[in-house]
Design a protein that fits this description.
Blueprint lengths: L3 E4 L2 E4 L4 E7 L9 E6 L6 E6 L6 E3 L7 E6 L4 E6 L8 E7 L17 E2 L3 E6 L1
């Protein structure tokens, strides 16, 4: 079992930056692919970014490509989402998720591929 806790959300002006963290419990984090998703009010949760176990492979939604960077520090059992050039449309609750380390996934983009989810952290970007 992996427990995930996000932090780092808050209120920021358009053009600003935030860094989200996802702290994982357990010793299997380094064996788990992970991803970030977000859900804006009245919208479905959507894929933001994903990263492989080693960090060697990443994927981004087109809407954040070039502005957001996903990374991980397996020694610290922590994943990160650096968000730059934030826009009002980035306002959402951001969730981190991890895959059962016994499974491999074909794509980072499918929510059902993930077995563990954090509680979410609010990001609000003002115009």
């Amino acid at each position: 079992q992996v427990q995930l806790v996000e932090s780092g959300g808050g209120l920021v002006q358009a053009g600003g930056s935030l860094r989200l963290s996802c702290a994982a419990s357990g010793r299997t984090f380094s064996s788990s692919a992970m991803g970030w998703f977000r859900q804006a009010p009245g919208k479905e949760r959507e894929f933001v970014a994903g990263i492989s176990r080693s960090g060697g492979n990443t994927d981004y939604a087109d809407s954040v490509k070039g502005r957001f960077t996903i990374s991980r520090d397996n020694a610290k059992n922590t994943g990160y989402l650096q968000m730059n050039s934030l826009k009002p449309e980035d306002t959402a609750v951001y969730y981190c998720a991890a895959v059962n380390p016994l499974r491999a996934i074909a794509t980072f983009r499918v929510q059902t591929a993930y077995d563990y989810w954090g509680q979410g952290t609010q990001v609000t970007v003002s115009s």
